[in-house]
Target: Dephospho-CoA kinase
Amino acid sequence: MTLIGLTGGIASGKSTIGARLGALGAVRIDADQLARDAVAPGSPGLGRVAERFGDTVLLPDGGLDRAALGATVFADAAALANLNAIVHPEVRRLSELRIAEARAADPDAVIVYEIPLLVETDRQGEWDLVVVADAPAEQRIERMVRLRGMSEEDARRRVANQASDAERRAVADVIIDTSGTQAETEAQVDALWDRVSRRASARG
Ligand SMILES: CC(C)(COP(=O)(O)OP(=O)(O)OC[C@H]1O[C@@H](n2cnc3c(N)ncnc32)[C@H](O)[C@@H]1O)[C@@H](O)C(=O)NCCC(=O)NCCS
Ligand SMILES: Nc1ncnc2c1ncn2[C@@H]1O[C@H](COP(=O)(O)OP(=O)(O)OP(=O)(O)O)[C@@H](O)[C@H]1O
Model:
């Protein structure tokens, strides 16, 4: 098994890289999705979130109002720390489970775990390879505003609540420069895949 930890700031291109690696044959696991699973309707996690933040973060159908919770936590560091303390242990548990399942299904699998908060949650030591999607914060803010319809203020808040580009680069084994065209990003991913496949066949 080859275990890749794929990180990057918000809107840096992690999903684009993960999708390409998936098309080339990697098994994808996504921390953002696991964080959604951790607060699924009826889950203990969602109960704890409602206890801490009140019913205003719930939708009429009982699901999580992500926009309301996001507006609260990205403007208040203590609230964000409270949310992280509820969600992150479950994300860790689920990620370990999914990685073990993927390994059991195929001992030679290349697994790519997309984890926005690799540095922030101190998980840099757990991977065969740490890959960092890297584009300047200003460009990422512009993408969030233009492509996701976020206000500039919201985009800046999200960036401010994450590690810096320099902190992520410092833990990288491989940096994918995502500031150019999609084709340029994909060419770098294809080169990474060649390197990972060679490593796997040299071992096996
Ligand atoms: C606050 C929530 C409800 C907002 O939901 P929303 O649908 O708007 O955003 P989504 O979950 O799709 O996240 C988008 C991006 O925001 C950034 N982000 C999300 N959570 C955090 C966080 N706790 N700290 C810093 N950045 C974060 C990441 O870059 C992520 O890729 C949600 O982000 C959440 O529950 N966050 C806490 C769990 C978490 O840390 N998730 C990140 C991966 S473990
Ligand atoms: N060269 C590039 N490489 C990757 N993505 C790019 C590039 N140019 C533009 N984009 C766009 O930037 C956006 C961010 O990409 P993506 O969704 O892959 O980021 P992400 O890091 O997964 O985001 P999040 O942290 O919100 O989950 C996408 O809309 C993508 O199409």
Residues 10, 31-32, 35, 66, 69-70, 73, 80, 83-84, 87, 91, 116-117, 158, 161-162 surround dephospho coenzyme A (ligand 1) (CB under 6 Å). Residues 130 and 173 are 5 Å apart (CA to CA). The chain has a mean pLDDT of 96. The radius of gyration is 18 Å.
